[in-house]
Every structure is written in C-alpha cells, then in structure tokens.
C-alpha cells in the first residue's frame, strides 16, 4: 500500500525516520554507570572477539549495498584499527581474489539473495573465513548461510532502487564499528559522540526530508541535461557513487560519482559552463580540501550545486554563484546519511527502472 505516495520509492524515502529507528531499536544503550553508552548487536556478541583478532575485514556486496559498505569503511577502520578491504562480489569471483582463514568477510545485501553475493559467500566459506551477514531479509540465503550477522530491520523494501535499506545498512555498519571498538578506552568519547549522533539521526533525517520542494525545483532544472557529475571524498565518497547510481537507474540520465581527490587526474577535462556538477562539502576532515576543489571547478566556470552543512554557504561558495543546498550538522561519519537524500529526494520516483530487477538471483 503506497498510502499518500505515488511510488513505493517515494514512500520508502519518507519512511526513513521510522526505519532508522527500528534498525537501532534495542541495540543502542544509553545509561548505566561505568559504561554509559554502548551498542549491543545480539547476532554478533559471541563473535566479536574473533572479529577483533582478524587480520582484515572484507566487505562484499553489489550495487547500493556495496556503496553502503563503502560509506561505513572509514569509521570501521578508525574504530577497529583493522584494515578494511572492499570487494564487489562479481569482481572477487572473477579474480578468485585471496580470502584467508584470518579474514572476517562481511556480506551486505538487502534481499539476502543476490546471486553474485551468495556465490562470493560460498567462496569465502570454502576458504575458511568468518562470514558475517548484514541483511534485511530474515530467512534469506545469505542470512541462513553466514556464521552470524545482523538484520537491518528496515522493513520490506519494494522500490527496485534501494533507499531506506541503504541508510539502515550504514547505521548497522556504524554500530558494528562501535561494537568492535568497544574495548578501546582511547576512542570512548568519539564512540559516545557517535551514539548520541545516532539517537538524533531520525529527527535530522526528518529535517532533510522537508527539503523535498527545493529538491523538486532542482530536479526540474536538471531534467533536460545529458549528464551529471557528483564529487565527494572521505565519508562522502560513497555518497557521490550512490547519488550517481540513483540518477542513472531511476532518472535514466548519465551520471558519475567521482572521488574528488582524483579530479585532476582526468575528470577536470570535462568541466565547462554547461555540465552540472554536484559537490558534497559537508563539515568533516576533508572540508578544506573540498573548498579548494570548488575553487578549481569554479575557475573553470563549472556549473556547481554544492551540498554543505547549514551556515556554510559563504565559506563553500565565495563567488556566490553556486546553487547551495544545506543539511543539518551531524557527527562526521553519519553525514552521508543526510547528504545522500539530496541526491535522491525528488523528481525521480520510479519503482521499476527499465532493465533492472529488485534482486538478481541468477546469472
Ligand atoms: C533477535 C531477534 C529479534 C528479537 C531480539 C531480542 C530474529 C530474527 N531476531 O534480534 O526478533 O527481538 O533477538 O533479543 O529472531 N544472522 C546471520 N546472518 C545474517 C543476519 C543474522 O547469521 O545475515 C543471525 C545472527 O547472528 C543471529 C540471528 O541471525 O543469531 C538473528 O539476528 P538479529 O535479528 O540481527 O539479532 P537480534 O538483533 O539479537
Ligand atoms: C540490484 C538492485 O539489482 O541489486 C540494487 O537494483 C541493489 O538496488 C543490488 O543494490 C544489490 O541487491 P541486494 O539485495 O544484494 O542488496
């Protein structure tokens, strides 16, 4: 039932304050005396010791699920100190890439049935790695065949293009990072700040969803364009990839997510006064680097749409000639959850993009 919405995708985007709340329910703990704030992931508590001892964590997934893992990678590396590798399931299989007994492999999948991810799971099991699932579907093949895991509890997702599952996956992986790092005293303040940020997240997402009309206007402006570039880095590299993926699959417009640090090594050649470019420049450790990227794009007369933290318009766009979209401030590693909405909010509401299926269960 789509209720008041025209499409499931739109409904699912607007459900996120609730789906994120359900994802976190019973898993974030505030209170108690010595350990005031912590995370409890029932499905992982008996495996955390092994995960902490692993030589590598390898995230494996396809499409949006891969992008969600990419968004969580920096916080996992920071809080666990364990190297985190990223694998697109089909590419891992094509290469028969090395997977070891000392690895923790994490399979991220909304449906829990994607054929490539499932085959990569079989491959990792054969190679003796610990296999962890992050899935939305209880009883799915990936949930059944992993050694342990976490259900994201985002509720049924019908729109082919994943939306609420993406944000819930990121939240689960941030909670995974918190749980793994739970025994490290030096990062306690950081962890507590992230937990506070997670508690605040549903209301911040609600705030961002109010930008619906503004995003609709922007979508109208871009509707006739051939192409759109999205620049991000750090926590928002994944936002750039995922935003571009959504534009491609739902608006059927060519779009590319670009790691801003790679700008000079090719993409800069594309910049002119016609091509629209979205730059994600929220407040985090990469902010000043993004400011300089904006200046360089501006010097080449780039048509810029800058997404920044509230109050930062003047510092991201000195010339005043960019279109600005502001999001509320949250803890840096949670920022992708807000910035992401700006790339998908409006105008592209199709539940069944041509040529695409919700889950590919065969070759
Ligand atoms: C579980 C219950 C939940 C209950 C809660 C109360 C289920 C599905 N969940 O949630 O209804 O309210 O206890 O304490 O019954 N798993 C995998 N692979 C995956 C995902 C999960 O092996 O991809 C395993 C987990 O290791 C765990 C089980 O499935 O053994 C349930 O996982 P999850 O639902 O995340 O656990 P809880 O949050 O504890
Ligand atoms: C694709 C979907 O077919 O599968 C994407 O169109 C999705 O939206 C991808 O991200 C992976 O699916 P899953 O279920 O493994 O997360």
Secondary structure layout plus pairing:
Elements: H1 8-14, H2 16-24, E1 28-30, E2 37-39, H3 48-53, E3 56-61, H4 63-80, E4 84-88, H5 89-95, E5 103-109, H6 115-126, E6 130-135, H7 141-145, E7 148-151, H8 164-180, H9 188-209, H10 212-222, E8 227-232, H11 237-251, E9 254-259, E10 276-281, H12 287-299, E11 303-309, H13 313-316, E12 323-327, H14 336-344
Parallel strand pairs: 3-4, 3-5, 5-6, 6-7, 8-9, 8-10, 10-11, 11-12
Antiparallel strand pairs: 1-2
Bound molecules: uridine-diphosphate-N-acetylglucosamine and 6-O-phosphono-beta-D-glucopyranose.
6-O-phosphono-beta-D-glucopyranose binds next to helix 4.
Organism: Rehmannia glutinosa
Keywords: Aminotransferase, Glutamine amidotransferase, Repeat, Transferase
Protein name: glutamine--fructose-6-phosphate transaminase (isomerizing)
Instruction: Determine the strand fraction and express it as a percent band.
Output: 15-25%
Separation, N- and C-terminal Cα atoms: 31 Å
**Bound ligands, each once:** uridine-diphosphate-N-acetylglucosamine, 6-O-phosphono-beta-D-glucopyranose
Determine the structural class based on helices, strands and strand pairing.
alpha/beta
- Please provide the ordered H/E string of secondary-structure elements: HHEEHEHEHEHEHEHHHEHEEHEHEH
Number of helices: 14
Summarize the structure.
This protein is of the alpha/beta class. It is built from 14 helices and 12 strands. The protein has helices at residues 8-14, 16-24, 48-53, 63-80, 89-95, 115-126, 141-145, 164-180, 188-209, 212-222, 237-251, 287-299, 313-316, 336-344, and strands spanning 28-30, 37-39, 56-61, 84-88, 103-109, 130-135, 148-151, 227-232, 254-259, 276-281, 303-309, 323-327.
């Amino acid at each position: 039932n789509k209720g008041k919405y025209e499409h499931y995708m739109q409904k699912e985007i607007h459900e996120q304050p609730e789906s994120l709340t359900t994802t976190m329910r019973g898993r974030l703990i505030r209170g108690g005396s010595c350990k005031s704030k912590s995370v409890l992931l029932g499905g992982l508590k008996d495996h955390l010791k092994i995960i902490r001892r692993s030589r590598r964590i390898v995230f494996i997934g396809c499409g949006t699920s891969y992008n969600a893992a990419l968004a969580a990678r920096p916080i996992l590396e920071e809080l666990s100190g364990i190297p985190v590798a990223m694998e697109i399931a089909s590419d891992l299989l094509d290469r028969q890439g090395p997977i070891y007994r000392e690895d923790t492999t994490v399979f991220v999948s909304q449906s829990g049935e994607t054929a490539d991810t499932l085959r990569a799971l079989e491959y990792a099991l054969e190679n003796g790695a610990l296999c962890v699932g992050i899935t939305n579907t209880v009883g799915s093949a990936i949930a059944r065949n992993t050694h342990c895991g976490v259900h994201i509890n985002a509720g049924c997702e019908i729109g082919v293009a994943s939306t609420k599952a993406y944000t819930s996956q990121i939240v689960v992986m941030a909670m995974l990072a918190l749980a793994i790092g739970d025994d490290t005293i030096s990062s306690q303040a950081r962890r507590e700040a992230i937990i506070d940020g997670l508690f605040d997240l549903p209301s911040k997402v609600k705030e961002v969803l109010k930008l619906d009309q503004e995003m609709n206007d922007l979508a109208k402006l871009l509707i006739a364009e051939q192409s759109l570039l999205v620049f991000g880095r750090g926590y928002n590299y994944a936002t750039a990839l995922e935003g571009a993926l959504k534009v491609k699959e739902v608006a059927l417009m060519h779009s590319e997510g670009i790691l801003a640090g790679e700008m000079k090594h090719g993409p800069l050649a594309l910049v002119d006064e016609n091509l629209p470019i979205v730059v994600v420049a929220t407040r985090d450790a990469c902010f000043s680097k993004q400011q300089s990227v904006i200046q360089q794009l501006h010097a080449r007369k780039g048509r810029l749409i800058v997404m920044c933290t509230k109050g930062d318009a003047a510092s991201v766009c000195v010339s005043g000639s960019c279109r600005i979209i502001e999001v509320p401030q949250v803890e840096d590693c949670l920022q992708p959850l807000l910035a992401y909405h700006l790339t998908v909010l409006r105008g592209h509401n199709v539940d069944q993009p041509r040529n695409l299926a919700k889950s590919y269960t065969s070759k």
